[in-house]
Amino acid sequence: MASPLSASAFVKALKDEGLKVVEVGDWRTHNRNHKGPWGPLHGVLIHHTVTKGTANTVKICRDGHSTLPGPLCHGVIAKDGTVHLVGYGRANHAGLGDDDVLDAVVHEKTLPPDNEANTDGNRYFYGFECENLGDGKDPWPAAQLEAIEKAAAALCRAHGWDANSVIGHLEWQPGKVDPRGFTMRSMRARIADRLGGKPSTPSTPPAKSGTYTVAKGDTLFSIARAHKTRVAVLVDLNDLDDPDQISVGQKLKVPAASSPSRPTPAPGPAYEPFPGAGFFHGGRHSPVITTMGRRLVAEGCGTYRYGPGPNWTNADRESYRRWQKKCGFTGADADGIPGKTSWDRLRVPNS
Length: 351
What we know:
Structural class: alpha/beta
CATH topology of the largest domain: Lysozyme-like
Largest sheet: 6 strands, mixed
Radius of gyration: 20 Å
Shape: globular
Order of helices and strands: HEEHEEEEEHEHEHEHHEHHEHHH
Mean pLDDT: 87
Number of strands: 12
CATH superfamily of the largest domain: Peptidoglycan recognition protein-like
Number of domains: 3
Helix content: 25-40%
CATH class of the largest domain: Alpha Beta
Oligomer: single chain
Strand content: 5-15%
Low-confidence stretches: 197-207, 258-268
């Protein structure tokens, strides 16, 4: 736990670590502090941007867009390793995540599965967006990986944290896959080495592992949840470049403590926990979306000509907008993007 560094101390920490820093406009006072508190801070969250081109990426991360105002992070780490500072204070980068993950970060211990979205991460984390398409194919230049390592280490050094205080978005919020293309296990190892020691507790999966055969309808998230582990652990165990690209019949290593031929459902509620508003965007493919659509149809809110299906579409958004209005939401609160209150009321069965 720590109070945020002053903007000047933040810049100094980055430069002292050997980073090239570009200060963009009024970044020192550009924030979302009017929406809630910033701090105490507990760690550093790493993202990828799903954008191409440094100038375009910096602009988007500074300004945001109509449904998510900027800043979307504190610093943008470009392909060449330059850190562009776009905001300081509360930023729209982390969204809602798992309170158990936050507790693990606070105590610098092994991360649990991220299966809830109940805690405001924008308050508690520094955020770095890293320029990358996030498709598992866009390369991560050595200069950029080194800059990620340095930026995270700089803040750990300034606050007296260890490498376990640095996590990926996929370890914080259910349904997220970023950063894709390198593992957080390997990045934490680099940060620990830079800080001159190892993480105080292991952040790696168990040495022993079993196997699981991917079945129709499986996602890495559903497999991780069934085996009481994290997507990041499965990514590390199987050296996966793209968590979304698994195929029926594929053999995956899973933690040995729970590796049945078919996954045993993890104990928990009969309904899907809210995966976070950021889960719902164009290109998202998940059985959760199909199950959600069926519930919307059952509630008389469906606008589907076909389906519903696993891909997030405008029909899903319009159907959900009708559900939000049925729940009494109006204006910007009925924009068709699920929020926790309306999601909990919909009672989407586990899929």
